[in-house]
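Lesson 9: reading folded outputs for more than one chain in a single document. The general rule is that every protein is listed as its sequence immediately followed by its structure tokens, and records are never interleaved. Here is the first one.
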Amino acid sequence: MSSIYFIFFLSLCSCKPLPDSSLGLNEVAYHEEPSHVYLGSPSIVRLSSGRLLASHDFFGPGTKSYPQNVSVYSSDDDGVTWTFISYILRTYFTTLTVYNDRIYAIGIRGGKNDSGIVIHRSIDNGASWNYNQSDEGVLLFNGWFDSGAMPIVTANQMMYRTVEYHVGTGKWPYPFQAAIISCNLSSYSLSKNITADDPIMSLRNWKITPPLPFDTKWLPKTYPNLTAPGFLEGNIVVLQKTSSKNDDEQLRILNVLRFNSIPLSNLAIILELNQTLNTLSFISVIHFPGGMSKFTIRFDPITQIYITLCNPVTVEPVVDQRNILSLSYTNDLEHLNNWHIAADRLLYDDTGLTVNDSLRYTGFHYVDWQFDRLSSFDNKSSCSQWNCDGGPDMIYLVRTGYRGANSYHNSNRITYKTLPNYRAIIKQHQLMLKNRSVHKTVEV
């Protein structure tokens, strides 16, 4: 059993709300800036016990001589305080998910001989990550990959997650090539021996698509010459075919990717999975607020809308702006276009910095979030099923460069916040759009 740890990273103290902030952020983790150790890849889930689990990795020059481990924190008071409880060994860009009360963590492993995509599992509320007497996890696919803490989604008795092959060299993000990994859940049963025979931890149940490189031929001819165009950090998004009413076999599996589109911004790229051939193909480029930064999209079946928390670019030409976090949605169930910003300042810079310094030093980004029931907990964990009703509220975890960070990118904190009753916020925005449309019609 391995016992490699980040000794100097370990903090056993409970973290509490930030006292010098007006944003209502609860701090999960903090690292001092002079160390050149930065905190990234936040992921969050709620367990059926009510406990919250949050994870993050480390990056930066200060981490070069240390193993790549993910820190896991728990909160038993709805995110007010957080306590470090475990490491997930030799992984980064790692996402947490809960399936039948078992916690899985899928991420990327670096190494000379065993780099690739790795999965870990916990059956004790995140206290340990041991499977078949090993805490090293199971290497699903060998190779050189990149990613972020991207959402894990189940549909059609399959578990999906995006990754990117890292192929060759070239200017970032040119080497990234899109892919989807998927696990067949049809053999999964609660009666299985959870100690040694878990189908999700079995190589034979997983597959990966061939790599799909970015192609400039996809771009409209009206676009200017783009600086280092490419894509990364894709989202699994499930759409129902318009010809289908309630047939799981008629689901479309999309990969919606962050689009590095300098000097343009607020765009994303959509690929689609051919579920028979297990291949990806290009569908469209869409206008998407915050498409220059990592985002997570989820579907709310009650309102029939897709939702994201994003970093829209509002200060041109600063296309890497991340000092504002917004709530955005679309009710375009066919093309996933026509995104609206319902709340443009969920998080913003309250430090008093000038505009230019705020853009340089403040970032609320790489947000992972889940639907939740804050006021009426009913012993349900965060749901990975694409169309389950997760609740009327949201919980979110933020890679945060704030109050002391040496740049917005080099985040010194991981923070947590909630958004109660997001449906009311979106409904209010929809009514405003409707009234505006009526007003324009009357004027005509």
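And here is the second record, again sequence then tokens.
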Amino acid sequence: MSKTTLPTWISRAPRNFGSASHGKLKADQWRTACMINLVITLCRLWGKPGASQQNTDILKNFLSLIIAVRFATMRSTTVERITIVEEYFKFYLKSLVSIFGEGCLVVNNHLSLHIAECLRGFGPTHGWWAFPFERYNGIMQRYKTNRKLGKVELTFVQTFCRGGNLKALMASDYLPEVLGSFRPVIQEYFGKDFRGSVLADLLALTPETGDLDHEGSDIPRMDSKHLVPLSDDAYMALLHRLNDDHPTPRYRSYADPLEESTRSLEPNARSQASVHYKGVVYATASQHVGNSFILFHHCGNPRAGQIREIFSHTRATREPSSVSEFFCIVKPLQELVDVDIPRDPYRPYHLLDVRLYYDDFAPIVVIKLKDIIAHCATCSYTDPLLTRNARVVLSLDRVSCISPLLYTRLS
């Protein structure tokens, strides 16, 4: 678990997972442990040739549950996804009985068969799940009361309003300096963990762009840093990316001679360490490794890679207009060669969007923020049968499925 890189919006499972010392896990920690850590670990252990039939059956049983939960909790749904939820929950229960017997079944197993029906009737689960209510129950449990009926409700309201007013006061630009020292105390007492299901609920209340950092806009804030020249490789990659959109007129290098119906591309840009986009933070590898690993579209195909630099660039469009935009310099992870693809224990499970890449990088590419699909979890992977060291890449996209919907039953 300690070797797995995760973005900051994911709640990590305890490093001593499985030990009683970590206490009761939160729902988001269970989600991370099961849908990320155990997927990476169990496929590595039981997904290779030579695994016992029992281990293979248990792995397929577990992964069928993960696939069903993954598609049931996406932020959008379709008829095809609901069918996957329904069929994989059925497979999970049938294989569960086959492996462990009917005595292992509980009421929740029956209730899970109604999730597909609820998705058809009410839409994506983030619109009707119980996490917001449980969160408020947790808040109220921390409030001190005198347990006198008729006064408890007033205590809840007063405490809630008091906390809201204090947080607003502490966030004010007009807070007297003498009160500034109380900020850490207030933030610690009334603070929030905006990861996991909390982030999902917040995004459900925002415009479709999903940016929580810039008043509902999907355009991140530009800063006033000084212009610096782009490297030759980055400049040519930027030129290539912009011309991929078939602009009119096309862009040419500032070093090239003047051509009709072209515009010279500015070679300078403003560097950034990180950028907020659609509610989450993307950062350079030097700023935060977990926030730097992404899945992105390039030349019509999904790729995995690491953000090395982020910059804002201003370019001329039609006279006298100009446009400023953020770009990322990304080093893509190298794809497996044909001889190593059959040795990837993750690839058979298309609906999990997890696979191996070589732990080496291809030449840089420049992408726009809209090219980013999502963050990804990664972990180093060593197998003597592979020609080179590899890295597991697991998609953290909760909106779409990157792989084609290959409706493969885990038979």
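What the second record shows: The longest helix spans residues 79-100.
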